């Protein structure tokens, strides 16, 4: 019989607001998306020069992960091979694909070409946090809590992973939303069970 799996932390970035565990921790509605992402980075005092070279999709997912793990997961708590990343979205890397295509009309940009795959955001996250476990990026028309519960649940129940960063990272133009979850085998009464109902509840939270 499988043990319970828990959502031990969550982070949402949407409509120029950052939420950690359901609480708004930062807001800046007066700037463009690019400047908003930089303002989040600066507000939380993050130091990682490579951040500025990333495309917007990677910045969004990377920032959400940074805040998700802050005060939630210590670097030495798990073997890096037992931590995974499973992300989903609807637009793949289309935002960067379109920007790259525009550059090909003159001189193609290698800096943009590097980011013309959606799983590059996973690579940026894994490099930053030295994560070496299972990782995958899936494309759906909309947030699919049932798939995430089943896929990540299997990885943890069959001891492929002990912990997983999972969720939704969607960005196209100025429209964006990311909702990430830290999922672990160990939890207590203060944590939510890892179910599609609780995933959906968090995903829809700021619209209620």
Structure explained in plain terms:
The chain has 208 residues and is of the alpha+beta class. It has a single domain (6-207), classed as Thiolase/Chalcone synthase (Peroxisomal Thiolase, Chain A, domain 1, 3-Layer(aba) Sandwich), CATH 3.40.47. 34% of the residues lie in helices and 25% in strands. Strands 1, 2, 3, 4, 5, 6, 7 and 8 form an eight-stranded mixed β-sheet that branches. β1 and β2 (17-20) form a beta hairpin. α1 runs parallel beside α2 (56-69) and α2 (56-69) runs parallel beside α5. The chain is globular, with a radius of gyration of 17 Å.
From the N-terminal CA to the C-terminal CA, the straight-line distance is: 36 Å
Number of helices: 7
How is the CATH topology named?
Peroxisomal Thiolase, Chain A, domain 1
Q: Provide the domain count.
A: 1
Give me the strand/helix succession: EEEHHEHHHEHEEEH
Number of strands: 8
Quick structural overview:
With 208 residues, the protein is of the alpha+beta class. 34% of the residues lie in helices and 25% in strands.
Please specify the SSE layout and strand pairing.
Elements (H helix, E strand, L loop, with lengths): L5 E9 L2 E4 L2 E5 L5 H11 L12 H14 L13 E7 L4 H10 L6 H4 L6 H10 L5 E5 L5 H13 L5 E10 L2 E10 L7 E2 L2 H8 L5
Parallel strand pairs: 4-5, 4-6
Antiparallel strand pairs: 1-2, 1-7, 1-8, 2-3, 6-7
Helix pairs in contact: 1-2, 2-5, 6-7
